[in-house]
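Protein modeling request. Please complete all fields; requests missing the sequence field cannot be processed.
Requester role: graduate student
Desired output: 3D structure, token encoding
Chains: 1
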Amino acid sequence: MLEHYFTCPYCWESISMMLDNSVSKQVYIEDCEVCCNPIQLSVQFSAFELIDFQADSIEQ
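Delivered output (60 residues):
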């Protein structure tokens, strides 16, 4: 597991999440710890190292 800090695309607060680096490619939705809005997370690892991370609003 890897702790990763990023900025919420809704409230702009800095938050952290634990990421599972045993799965190379992941896309899932988590709620912001501060404002509770849903964030789509796209995560990619290579050899257990984080190589890509995106946190996007799911609103159109």
